[in-house]
Design a protein that fits this description.
Layout (H helix, E strand, L loop, with lengths): L36 H14 L27 H20 L6 H12 L5 H8 L3 H13 L3 E5 L7 E5 L1 H21 L5 H15 L1
Helix pairs in contact: 2-6, 3-6
Length: 207
């Protein structure tokens, strides 16, 4: 009897014999037919998104209107009252002193020189709270008009004293009288005693 050799199992690679299915293209969205419920919902959604958001009139804050301005707090401030009073007087001061060619600062400098012959520029700056660069131009202007003149200081060889010329003295006599008259006019609601008291109280603040 013939012996059979051992059986050898041959494993064959298995291949997929199935034909791959072609890739499906995404289906195009079909627009809803006009008049359909889907079309109505689409139009309603788009309209809602585009429409601006308006605030209801019932919740809007009404605009405020002021019939009478309230300055009660400001009237409790010393600086506010002093400035308002000063502006009231300065307005008339500018009008009445215009013929003399004197502004408030010019008037202050000329009056100080008039009553303090030989005063120096440094003393003027300290007394009237002026900056030296500003005073230099002012002194030159008054000197060019012939209202003041410079003279050597009797004790300090480096300093120069300022003096009002006869023309400047005559001008200041009239200007100071005008200033006194207009202040009495603007403070007519005060008695002489009240006016004197007010001046004393104001001077306690800055002197």
């Amino acid at each position: 009897m013939q012996r059979r050799g051992p059986l050898i199992a041959h494993t064959m690679p298995q291949t997929d014999t199935k034909t791959p299915s072609p890739t499906r293209k995404p289906a195009k969205a079909t627009p809803p037919k006009p008049g359909s419920s889907s079309a109505k919902r689409t139009r309603k959604t788009a309209h809602t998104a585009d429409a601006p958001q308006t605030r209801s009139r019932s919740t809007a804050t009404p605009a405020a209107a002021v019939d009478q301005v309230d300055t009660t707090y400001l009237q409790t401030l010393m600086g506010y009252n002093a400035r308002r009073a000063a502006l009231s007087i300065i307005e008339l001061f500018l009008e009445r002193l215009a013929p003399y060619g004197l502004k408030p600062v010019d008037f202050s400098v000329m009056s100080t020189i008039q009553h303090n012959p030989g005063v120096t520029s440094r003393q003027l700056c300290t007394t009237l709270n002026l900056l030296p660069p500003n005073l230099v131009g002012l002194i030159q202007s008054l000197e060019s008009r012939g209202l003041i003149e410079r003279k050597p200081h009797p004790h300090d060889g480096r300093a120069v004293g300022l003096h009002a010329t006869p023309k400047g003295q005559a001008l200041m006599v009239q200007a100071e009288q005008t200033a006194s008259d207009l202040e009495i006019e603007k403070t007519a609601k005060l008695t002489p005693t009240q006016r004197k008291t007010l001046l004393a109280l104001l001077q306690k603040i800055y002197l």
